[in-house]
Amino acid sequence: MIGRRRLPEERPGVAPVGYKVAALLVSVDGDRAGFAGVSIGRTQAYDVEAEARCAYGRRHRAPAPRCDCGFYCLASEAEARGLMCVTEYRHAALLRVDVLGSYIRYERGFRYSRQRVTGVWVGACRCGNPAELLVDAGTGVVGRRGLVGSCTGCAVGRVGLSFGSYARLARVPVVAEASPYVRGEDELVPQLVAEVTLLQARLDRCQEQLGRLLGTDPG
Ligand SMILES: [Zn+2]
Ligand SMILES: [Zn+2]
């Protein structure tokens, strides 16, 4: 065929590692963890170990050079973390995957045939606090409900799954994505001093009002 270039072949000893943004799912009877894409693949659920099929139903193995089907991931963890700041992905999860089977490299990552999820970072709660458990997201696909991270404060009165339970179903570690807002110890001390000062001022005002009520001078 004129103009058709053969892609260079690689046979790495260790599977390449990639990162991707995904939605977390749990099966209808709660015994299986799953994932779904957040853009074109949002209706396609996949398991911890999964094989890509052509999204257009064509009879070739994904990824085919002249089709855009297959799993996608970024090679850079930092770049995938950067994606987690985008409005639509703020509350999604970040997955680390082993890129298995055949793959096609592109400038920022891989398009490939098989993957194994090896780590999950749960995005922030809707209030901005780091997630502490997973609650029903109110979304889903056939046979699987969507989960989203929540802090314990926002989860009051809601049913949820602990990270540990989800990790047991998925057989991969599940942790909260680090928050840029969590205070370090050095910032906590001035914060406490400010709070004590505020309390002292309130106490002084109370004493003043009490003194006025009793007809005595607080001094
Ligand atoms: Zn295809
Ligand atoms: Zn919250």
What can you tell me about this protein's structure?
With 219 residues, the protein is an alpha+beta fold. It has 2 domains: 17-176, no CATH class; 184-219. The protein is 21% helix and 34% strand. The protein has helices at residues 77-83, 163-170, 185-214, and strands at 17-27, 33-36, 45-46, 49-51, 71-74, 93-106, 109-122, 133-141, 144-150, 160-162, 174-176. Strands 1, 2, 3, 4, 5, 6, 7, 8, 9, 10 and 11 form an 11-stranded mixed sheet that branches. A hairpin with a 2-residue loop joins β6 and β7. The termini are far apart.
For the secondary structure, the number of strands is: 11
Strand percentage lies at: 25-35%
Bound molecules: zinc ion
Give me the Rg, rounded.
25 Å
Q: Which residues sit in consecutive blocks of at least 5 with pLDDT less than 50?
A: none
Question: Main beta sheet, described?
Answer: 11 strands, mixed
Q: What letter string, H or E per element, gives the SSE order?
A: EEEEEHEEEEEHEH
The portion of residues assigned to helices is 10-25%
Shape: elongated
Q: Note the total helix count.
A: 3
Helix-strand blueprint:
Blueprint: E1 17-27, E2 33-36, E3 45-46, E4 49-51, E5 71-74, H1 77-83, E6 93-106, E7 109-122, E8 133-141, E9 144-150, E10 160-162, H2 163-170, E11 174-176, H3 185-214
Parallel strand pairs: 7-11
Antiparallel strand pairs: 1-2, 1-6, 1-9, 2-3, 4-7, 5-7, 6-7, 8-9, 8-10
One zinc ion is lined by residues 125, 127, 129, 150-151, 153-154.
